[in-house]
Amino acid sequence: MNIASNISQIQKRIAAVCKSCGRNPAEVRLVAVSKKKPAEDIEAAFAAGQSLFGESYVQECVAKINEVKAAVEWHFIGALQSNKVKYLRGKVAMIHSVDRFSLAEEIDRQWGKDDTCVDILIQVNLGEEASKSGTTASDLIGLVREVARLKHVRIRGLMALPPWEADLEEVRPYFRQLRELAEQIDALGLPNVSMQELSMGMSHDYEVAIEEGATLIRVGTAIFGAR
Ligand SMILES: *Cc1c(COP(=O)(O)O)cnc(C)c1O
Questions:
Q1: Which residues pair with 60 in a beta bridge?
Q2: Which CATH architecture has domain 3-224?
Q3: Vertex 97 angle, CA 118 and 192, to 5°
Q4: pLDDT single digits (tens) 158-189
């Protein structure tokens, strides 16, 4: 597995998709999803110019943050239990997976201890799949309004993990729906809420996600190989 060449391949594909759909490639950031991969793989990716990493499991995330010496930006992207938020305090720059008020409140409480603020995304369960986290599209605006009142979290956008579809044209409507939801929220002009970030697209569908407006693509397998 050549991590450096995988990253450069993906960067080329990002540039090509952006060119074909008229987007600025600087608007699309690659989140290298390093879950279940060792710290050496992260160091190898960092040496190849990759500085943003996403982790899905709290214990593993914290262990790697302690182990990796490179100046990495960490995002937490996995399902998050409130009682584990304390371990992430001050260690991650963004949490992609906020899907309920009680979780946002706990993040607010933890970051409040240092009187700092953390960027968060609201995760939406577009396919309403029982196995996945995320608020429903119909509950989204209510949740955003509530979370926006918290002082130590800053809503930066939305995240989704749509159903896996072999046919990429079947996943496109989910990405489009996430962008439309972000536009609806943006139009409300709520204080403390920006809809700048759309976290969507993984190894097999990130190109479609970029065409539909993704600003953060979360790619694991295509960089680090199968888990
Ligand atoms: C594992 C994971 C990814 C990366 O998936 P790949 O198919 O390996 O690219 C993206 N997002 C989330 C939330 C994940 O848990």
A1: none
A2: Alpha-Beta Barrel (3.20)
A3: 40
A4: 999 999 999 999 999 999 999 999 999 999 99
Q: Quick: pLDDT tens for 122-141.
A: 999 998 899 999 999 999 99
Domain boundaries, the chain: 3-224
Give the position, in ligand 1's atom list, of the atom nearest the Cα of 224. Answer: 8
Residue pair 215/175 in contact by the 8 Å Cβ criterion = no
Which of 28, 32, 12 is CA-nearest to residue 72?
32
Q: Is the pLDDT of residue 3 over 90?
A: yes
Residues with CB under 6 A from ligand 1: 33, 35, 56, 77-78, 161, 202-203, 218-222
Return the H-helix or E-strand segment holding 186: helix 168-188
Distance separating alpha carbons of residues 21 and 132, to the nearest angstrom:
30
Q: What are phi and psi of 49, to 5 degrees?
A: 100, 5
51-to-88, 109, 128, 145, 220 alpha-carbon distances in Å = 19, 28, 33, 32, 14
Cα dihedral across residues 182, 186, 192, 195: positive or negative: positive
Q: To the nearest 10°, report the CA torsion of 17, 22, 28, 33.
A: -20
Which of 134, 142, 148 shows the shortest CA–CA distance to 199?
Answer: 134
**CA triplet 2, 159, 11: central angle to 5 degrees?**
30
- Three-state helix/strand/coil letters over 119-135: EEEEEECCCCCCCCCCE
Token representation of residue 98 = 């906020």
Q: Which atom of ligand 1 is nearest to the CA of 35?
A: 1
Assessment of whether the complete model's pTM goes beyond 0.70: yes
